[in-house]
Amino acid sequence: MKKIFFALLLTTGVFTGCKDYLDIKPKGYTIPALFEDYQKLLNDNALNNSSSAYPNYLTDDVQAGIEKDESSATDYTLFSILKRNLYSFAHGAILESGNVDTFYESAYSRIFTYNTVINNVENVTDGVPALKKQLKAEAMVGRAFEYLNLVNGYAVHYDAATAATDLGVPLVLVEDINKKYIRNTVAEVYAFILKDLREAQPNLATKGGDRFRPTKSAVDALLSKVYLYMGNYPEALQNANESLLVNKALMNYGDYASKMGVTYGRVFLESNKTAFPTLDKNIETIWGRQTATSNGHVFAEVYASPDLLNTYANDLPAGAVDKRLSLFFCKDFAQFGGNVAKFPGRTIWGPYVEFNMAISTAELMLIAAEAEARVGDASIALKHLDVLRKSRIVGATPLAAATKHAALIMVLEERRREMPFQGINRLVDLKRLNKDPDFAKAVSHTFGTQTVTLPANDPRYVLPIPPKVLAINPSLPVLDR
What is the pTM for the complete model shown? Predict the structure, then answer.
């Protein structure tokens, strides 16, 4: 089967500046001309990937190992320059000149493909008009999601009072690799995300057989996430409730166990020994995006911080077992293959499970619960938590809170327990919660005898535009970090 020519451009320099790519039709490649060509573009497995997990090295979830640690991957002295700079809260650039930023550059590569479909699929001479509109709508959802990740990684968190002037990220809307781009504001990027999602929704399928393709209810779920990040809790709640009418399925983690000696497949269903389901088979996947295989996760690279681990003991009934802790972490030692690493008194993150970076039932319930605790009914917030916890904790009992604030604390801690180390979720939560004096916190990291601290709302929470990108677009303004 011939390859699609536009897909080649993803790896030949979206931002490198080259001669007009339409001058020559390469032998063995097809420039998209038919509806089937655009279908193939959206079927590219690379589009199923999402943001790199390296921003976790900025958060309060991670703890580095010590020099000459038996689990050598966690040894701070062996970290890459990128991870060492993040973990130590270095000022300025975190990458050396010419290095690839797997988060930023991969996101814009996927946006390039989405733009190709969005701007051209309705012009092809074949295909059913309704299906062409649907394919365009699916690409618009993918593009909106990429921008949601980018603006939350490379900009200060959304603040209605300052978003119109805060530096966001470039909105690239055409498949022109030679154009010089401006850096749009945070408000402009969020407005564009909402526009893409709202315009796409009517043309999407009501039900989907492929969990990597968005549906109408998936857009409701994504809108709830966008509005949560914006601090618009009434809209977050309304959209979450709409999506929950369709998406209620939860896995029962109590049915699962873990085994030593393997990586992927170590978490398995006890009844028939099958592995933890992949995103396309997971009943919780509303719309799926997985971590990239390279730099996409932090499996067995870092220990869980005591600050994170302590949250698993909160609100845990006597004798109960939080399966998220027992299944996805390894305490004191780990065995993957023939290697056994010992780290007494510490706990490593080693699930070898591909968690969903887009939106799943559990996150949707947590969004609804947080919005209820903030602007709705705290008792309903706790009911959402009880349903989720019953599927995660063996021996869970109903929660009780004397105030809405107490319920909100429970929701936020449950959110942290449910989604540790997943994409940029924790980084975004730190940034948005730092806006609230009741939840603002400083993050401290230790390595050797040194401790470094990142104060709340420090500009170093914002990832810098990569030097490679700035070399090509030197006029892009940068945040002083």
Answer: 0.93
Low-confidence ranges of the chain (pLDDT < 50): 1-28, 294
SS3 string of the chain? Answer: CCEEHHHHHHHCCCCCCCCCCCCCCCCCEECCCCHHHHHHHHCCHHHHECCCCHHHHHCCCEECECCCCCCHHHEHHHCCHHHHHHHCCCCCCCCCCCCCCCCHHHHHHHHHHHHHHHHHHHHCCCCCHHHHHHHHHHHHHHHHHHHHHHHHHCCCCCCCCCCCCCECCCCCCCCCCCCCCCCCEHHHHHHHHHHHHHHHHHHCECCCCCCCCCEHHHHHHHHHHHHHHHCCHHHHHHHHHHHHCCCCCCCCHHHEEECCCCCCCCEEECCCCCECCCCCCCCCEEECCECCCCCCCCCCCCEECHHHHHHCCCCCCCCCEEHHHHHHEEEEEEEECCEEEEEEEEEEECCCCCCCCCEEHHHHHHHHHHHHHHHCCHHHHHHHHHHHHHHHEECCCCCCCCCHHHHHHHHHHHHHHHCCCCCCHHHHHHHHHCCCCCCCCCEEEEECCEEEEECCCCHHHCCCCCHHHHHHCCCCCCCCC
Q: Tell me which residue of 47, 55, 13, 14 sits closest to 297, measured CA to CA.
A: 55
**First-to-last C-alpha distance (Å) of the chain:** 48
User: What does the pLDDT read at residue 28?
Assistant: 47
pLDDT per position as a tens digit, 213-246: 999 999 999 999 999 999 999 999 999 999 999 9
